[in-house]
Amino acid sequence: MRFLVDAQLPPALCRWLETRGHDAYHVGTELPGATPDHAVAAYAVDHACILLTKDEDFLTRHPPGEYALVWLRIGNATNRSLLLWLEPRWAAIIAALDAGERLIEVR
Hints:
Shape: globular
Distance between the termini: 21 Å
Largest sheet: 5 strands, parallel
Strand content: 15-25%
């Protein structure tokens, strides 16, 4: 799978995804600084990426349709805390994506 990691998530998440066999790109390296959300969503569509974000705005302003959205519902966290939180949830996320889910809310 191909993932686009949104700007408020760390680049370390890309490396974590890559160790699990996925392609992962960070908004900070793929798009210019302060890129608006609609352009991030368009990039996800144009590059067939699943968007990983903590930003609720994607739900209301740019809801998934042509792209899949994984909405991580975790507050401020260190990189290590984020990855530890995500690890036990990852298999269910992948299963939902494989089943064709376009919006996955992760709590």
